[in-house]
Amino acid sequence: MEDLEETFEELENYSYSLDYSSPASPLEEKAPLEVAHWVSLVLYCLAFVLGIPGNATVIWFTGFKWKKTVTTFWFLNLAVADFIFLLFLPLYISYVAMNFHWPFGLWLCKANSFIAQLNMFASVFFLTVISLDRYIQLVHPVVAHRHRTLRNSQIVTVLVWLLASLIGGPSLYFRETMEVNNHIFCYHNFHEHDSDLALKRHHVLTWVKFVNGYLTPLLTMSICYLCLILKVKKQSILVSNRYSLTILALVLAFLICWTPYHIFNIWELTIHHGGYYHQVLRAGLPLSTALAFLNSCLNPILYVLISKKFQARFRASVAEILKYTLWEVSCSGTVGEQLRSSETKKSGLQETAQ
C-alpha cells in the first residue's frame, strides 16, 4: 500500500493538462473526480459527434466543391485541423472512460498527445490568421489586392503548421507510459531524475503554450475585430449591428472555450510548490480540457455556417447534389424499364416463333 501511495504521489508531479495524466489516488475521496470525469466524457462525445460531420462538411465543400480562394483555403485548413484532432478523440475518450488506463502502447501515447497539441494549436492559429485576413481585406484593401494571393496563403499555411508542430513537439519527447498494478498511465514525464529541471520544463512549456496559443491569438483577434467593427460602423449602421453580433460571438466562443483551460494549466504549476488544490485541479482540468475540445466542433458553425453567403452556397450545392442524385436514379430507372421492356419483347417474339 505504501508503494502504491508513493507511486501516485510521484505521478501527481506530472502534468495533468490536455492529457491530465493520473486519476485520484484510491486512498482519496473519489466522488468529485468521478462527477467531473463523467461530465467531461459527455462533452468529449458531444465534440466528436458534432465536430466530425460539421468539419467533414466544410472540408467537402471548401476542398472539392467550391472555387479555390484565399478565404475558402483558410476555412479548409481550419476544418482539417479540427477534423484530424477529433478523429483521434476516441482514443482519449477510451483512456478517460477506462479510468486512465492506456492499453494502446507507448507510440500511440506519444502520437495521440502530439496530434492533439498540433491540431488544437493549428486551429487556434488559423482562427488568428482568418482575423488578420479579414482586417487587412477591409481596412487595407490596397495591401490586400497586392499581397492577398493563393500562393501567399499557402506559404502562411505551411508556417502555421510548422509553428503548431513546434509547440506540440515536446509531447513526442516527454510523453511516456507507466504500469502500476496492471494499470498503464500515459503521462508527461518531466522528471528525468532531476526535480528542478522537471519544474523548469513544466513552467517553460506551460507559459509558451499560454503566450503563443492563447494570449497572442486572443489579443490579435480582439484588436482586428475591434478595428473591423469601427470600420463597418462608419459605413453602415445596419450592417454594423449584424456584423458586430457575429464578431462578438466569435471572440466570446474562443474566450469561453480556451480561458479556463489555460487558467488551470497555470494554476497547475502550483502543485510543485506544496499543492493544496489537487481536488480542485483534478475536477477543473478535465472539464476545462473538454471545453477547449468543444471549440473544434463550434468552429464550423461560428466561422463558416454563420455566413449568409456560405448558407446560400451550401443550399445551392446540396440542391445540385440532390438534383444529380435524382437524375442518376431517374436514369437508372429508365434504363431498367427499357431493359425489362426489351426482355418482354424478346420473350414475346420467341413464343411467336415457337
Structural account:
- With 354 residues, the protein is mainly alpha-helical.
- The protein has two domains: 1-306, Up-down Bundle (Rhopdopsin 7-helix transmembrane proteins), CATH 1.20.1070; 310-353.
- Helices cover 80% and strands 3% of the residues.
- It is built from twelve helices and two strands, in the order H-H-H-H-H-H-H-H-E-E-H-H-H-H.
- The chain has helices at 2-11, 31-65, 70-87, 89-97, 106-139, 141-147, 150-168, 170-174, 195-235, 237-268, 278-305, 308-353, and strands at residues 175-180, 183-188.
- The chain has a two-stranded antiparallel ribbon.
- A hairpin with a 2-residue loop joins strand 1 (175-180) and strand 2.
- Helix 2 (31-65) runs parallel beside helix 11 (278-305), helix 3 (70-87) runs parallel beside helix 7 and helix 9 (195-235) runs antiparallel to helix 10 (237-268).
- The longest helix has 46 residues, at 308-353.
- It is globular, with a radius of gyration of 26 Å.
- One of its GO terms (cellular component) is nucleoplasm.
- It comes from Myotis lucifugus.
- It is a multi-pass membrane protein.
- Keywords: Cell membrane, Disulfide bond, G-protein coupled receptor, Glycoprotein, Membrane, Receptor, Transducer, Transmembrane, Transmembrane helix.
- Its main location: membrane.
